[in-house]
Structures are given as C-alpha cells and as structure tokens.
C-alpha cells in the first residue's frame, strides 16, 4: 500500500465532501496513525482513549458519532465491540492506488468515495489465509485448553498484535498456535528459573557461630 498516494487520494475526497468537518478529519488522521503503527494491516484494534487523545476529541458522543459517520460515508469500516475485554476494530478503505483505486459513486451528488466489493472480499480472504487469531478471545480459549490462565493468553495476543504478528520483526507468523505453544514453553522455563532463584534467596543460615570450632 502506497501511503503517499493513499493520503493524496483521501485528501481529494475530503475536499469534495461537504459533510465533513475538522473533527472528522482529525479522527481519520488519528486512525491513519494507528494503522501506520500497526504496519497497515487489513484490520486492527483501536483503543478509544488513545484515539480520542490523538484526534483531540474530548467528547465520547462526538467520537462515536464521527466514527459512525466515517463508516456510513465509506472512508472506513467500523466494527464496534460491546465487550469491555474486546476492542473495536477498524478497516481502512484504500484510496489513490492502481490496484484498489477509490471510485466515485455515480448515484450520489456529493461524489462519495467507495471501494469495490471485489477488493473488499479479496482482503477478507487474505486475512483468513494468514491464519491469525480473529480476536483475543480465540487466543484466551486456546490457552485455557492448554491449562494456562487467561491473563497469559492476553499477554501473548497484545504482544504480537503490537508488533504486527511477526517473528523477530521480519518473518510473518503463519501458524499462531505453534507460536503460542512456544510462548508457553518459554513462560514455563522462566517460571522454573524464578522459582530456583527464590529458593536460593530463601536459604537460611544460622547467625550463631561457634568460633571455637575448627574450619
């Protein structure tokens, strides 16, 4: 994805869309920054407090209204979550590229920009091919089947979600179950080392010594 062409394309759409105000644009740029930090995935989780801070939006009502507007007007796809342990997801629609070129919808007078359904389904298929967990709940359930606490599953999910599901910062993960199993093995090794260290610290020595005894 060429982000320079994308930004040029979306700014052209902004200029033609009279429905937008500064808050919408500020919110979009905050989402774009999150998208950039996550290395431009098809879908990514967002944190409401962080997005509100980045976009300088002080009202939750304004924040949710602008998100719904941007979804209705086909700038993003907003997938809200009503689960406090599961963040909402965002899909950024592509603008300004040759393979996923944004097109004008002839049926609207405001020259609304949309992405073709063909490209949308291709992106959804690519998500499935990556064999990555769809939500942190899926990861937690997998950890539970291995008799590991939910907290450890959340640690695993948040860690790899933050680095774009790559090993060593370069290699894409193709089987997250295998990666999770390796994570559990390393965690178990760390627990063993920690227990050994604690046992050494807890060794008690007598403070009374008979200095008349030979060494």
Walkthrough of the structure:
The protein has 2 domains: about 5-130, Arc Repressor Mutant, subunit A (Orthogonal Bundle); about 135-200, no CATH class. It contains 8 helices and 7 strands. The protein has helices at about 5-15, 20-35, 50-55, 60-70, 115-130, 135-145, 150-160, 175-200, and strands at about 45, 75-80, 90, 105, 115, 165, 170. It has a 3-stranded antiparallel beta sheet. Helix 2 packs across helix 3, helix 2 (about 20-35) packs across helix 4 and helix 6 packs across helix 7. The protein is elongated.
β-strand number: 7
Give the neighbour order of strands across the main sheet.
1-3-2
The string of secondary-structure elements, in order, is HHEHHEEEEHHHEEH
Largest sheet: 3 strands, antiparallel
What are the SSEs and their pairings?
Elements: H1 3-16, H2 22-37, E1 44-45, H3 48-55, H4 60-72, E2 76-79, E3 89-92, E4 103-104, E5 113-114, H5 117-129, H6 136-145, H7 150-162, E6 166-167, E7 171-172, H8 176-201
Antiparallel strand pairs: 1-3, 2-3, 4-5, 6-7
Primary descriptors:
two-stranded antiparallel sheet; 2 domains; single chain; mainly alpha; Arc Repressor Mutant, subunit A; 3-stranded antiparallel sheet; 215 residues
């Amino acid at each position: 994805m060429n982000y320079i062409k994308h930004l040029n394309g979306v700014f052209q759409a902004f200029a033609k869309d009279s429905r937008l105000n500064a808050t919408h644009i500020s919110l979009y740029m905050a989402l774009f920054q999150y998208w950039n930090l996550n290395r431009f995935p098809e879908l990514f989780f967002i944190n409401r407090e962080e997005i509100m801070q980045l976009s300088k939006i002080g009202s939750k009502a304004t924040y949710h209204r602008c998100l719904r507007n941007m979804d209705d007007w086909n700038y993003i796809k907003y997938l809200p979550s009503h689960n406090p342990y599961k963040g909402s997801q965002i899909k950024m629609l592509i603008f300004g590229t040759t393979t996923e070129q944004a097109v004008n919808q002839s049926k609207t007078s405001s020259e609304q920009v949309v992405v073709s359904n063909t490209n949308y389904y291709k992106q959804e298929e690519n998500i499935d091919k990556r064999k990555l967990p769809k939500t942190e709940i899926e990861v937690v359930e997998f950890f539970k089947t291995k008799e590991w606490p939910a907290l450890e599953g959340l640690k695993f999910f948040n860690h790899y979600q933050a680095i774009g599901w790559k090993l060593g910062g370069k290699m894409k993960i193709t089987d997250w179950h295998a990666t999770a199993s390796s994570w559990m093995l390393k965690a178990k090794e760390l627990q063993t080392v920690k227990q050994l260290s604690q046992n050494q610290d807890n060794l008690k020595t007598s403070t009374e010594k008979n200095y008349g005894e030979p060494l």
